[in-house]
Amino acid sequence: MAETEVDVFISGAGPAGLILAYSLARLGHKIFICDAADKAHPTFPFYGRATTLFPRSQEILDQLGLFDDLAQDAFISGESIAYKNGQPINRAWNISDRAIGLETTFFRAPLNLRLKYSEDIFRHRLRELGVVVQAPLKLKTFDLDSHDYPVISSCERPNGECIKVRSRYIVGCDGGSSTVRQIAEIPFIGEKKTDYWVRMDGVIKTNLPEARKGVCAIETDTHGNVLWLPLDHGATRIGYSLRAKLFEKYGIQMTAEQAIHEAKQALQPFDLKFERLEWYTVYGIQQHVAATFRHQGRVLLVGEAAHTHSSGAAQGMNTAVQDVASLSWRLSGVLRGWYKDAVLDNYSEERHESAEKLIQSDKTISMLMSGKKPDDMKDRTESPHELLSQFMRGRQAALTSGLGISYPPNLLNDVGKSIQNHQLLPGHRAPDALVQKPGIASITTRLFELTRYDAKFRLLVFTGLSKHTMSDLQSLRRQVNASFSRFERVCNLVTIVLGHGAAFDEHLGFQRFGTGCWDPDGDAHAMYGMNETTGGLILVRPDDIVGLVVPLGDLKPVSEYLERAAHAEKVLEVKEPDRVVTATGTGQFLGQNESSPAFSLSPS
């Protein structure tokens, strides 16, 4: 039996497994990924499955360098419309103009691209890193021992060939029927609903107004809240509910012809003709959450292996992407000896709670889309369609977009040591903002472009106006020089300088911290709740979640935070404070001008 050793064994090569493999491989880890189905084979069903990526998922994929490839062929539109009895009504529930936090991102419209195309992109980019998906290859079993690579996985090809893989961790990305979860005997808690939905993709002719404008909701009494979703390559997805009478008539074995017939009925009074039906499915809604996302230290679950729900709010792939963003930096850091094991437990805690919240909202959405009222809405006089619109356009919009997902105070979300009542709360997503790199003052760039994903924390130093904050800045410089080198391998420093000038250090009057960028109009400071007189420090986790917010001159809480999460390196020598020449401002800078007294970079 062939045997190999890797850092991480990934079972399942859907979007969750592929993105996780790519994220870890680009950080230098040795990965083995397999799938029981060869999804790259020409005979594998091309279409169907997940299509929509919302703003937060797009941000994450952009951080990994994957977004641009996806956007080339995708249908991207923030427009939405709703119809009832053939007439437009003001109940469209798209999130693009309603989600709290849209002003803090530059990805503001849903991206629709079917998995056939997105998975092709993920596999191609993975191959560029030297990782090839092993498929068809089925995981049969795994065990744990005390070896340096303690997970022993046994896999089998259709021809009977067996492969043995030793790894330091095994991750189940293998869907709702996860083999990893079943072998580990992790309970999958939840229920299978009696509601059944139809989803179908194809190239369509219709007189539906503005059929290629964006997502459309068609309210019916017979087929629930009908989904109309423009897709890539001129295709469209239609979805409707098989209400009790329809399910009794067709059952789970509904044929393609029957599915097309009912789609035509659902869209009346509009005409519908399928030039080509590329895929359809009839499925029952399942809502489950695994009891834990981490088992015996070495077994981890991601995506639908950890949680399943309806496609009503298109959260399947989006939640999987967020799982990957949450896990990959932790797993990479633990593998490299950067982070303590507790951060992996923290993954399970945070994402498990998030999945449970998702399931609760999905129960409401799926019932309303099926034309039913949940128990807590039984006494409401509005129709299920009206209630669905209200629900999707309310707080749910921020959760659907992914921008409003947050985590409670814990090991990595230090509310207690943070500035109280601050605009940004630990556990919430850090905003993106426009800044300027030196030398290209006429062109702005996104802060997230300067802080690409590398599995490290980043300490954002908001300088404020140095004429007000000089004392705190100099104190911070002394503290950084004295002890912060212990965290250089796990934390990048970024100085966001309020104003604009010819040289960062000259403008500030001392050496900047790490990479510098200009904030000429103060927009980035405002976005992060920092004012010109005080500035401040914000520690951002590698998954773009705020970890800590503290005053500009107080590095101690940052060091204490990192000591809890990371293995600090031994300081071999204490750096001397930076010594620089005295200079006089020669240009009109914000906070510094020709009449300003000479500034000194020598220690104070």
Automatic annotation (TrEMBL):
Task: Tell me the superkingdom of the source.
Answer: Eukaryota
Q: What is this protein called?
A: Ubiquinone biosynthesis monooxygenase COQ6, mitochondrial
Q: List the Gene Ontology MF annotations in alphabetical order.
A: FAD binding; oxidoreductase activity, acting on paired donors, with incorporation or reduction of molecular oxygen, NAD(P)H as one donor, and incorporation of one atom of oxygen
The record ties this protein, via Gene3D superfamilies, to: 3.40.30.20, D-Amino Acid Oxidase, subunit A, domain 2, FAD/NAD(P)-binding domain
**Annotated keywords:** FAD, Flavoprotein, Monooxygenase, Oxidoreductase, Ubiquinone
Where in the numbering of this chain does the Phenol hydroxylase-like C-terminal dimerisation domain appear?
521-566
A Pfam match: FAD_binding_3
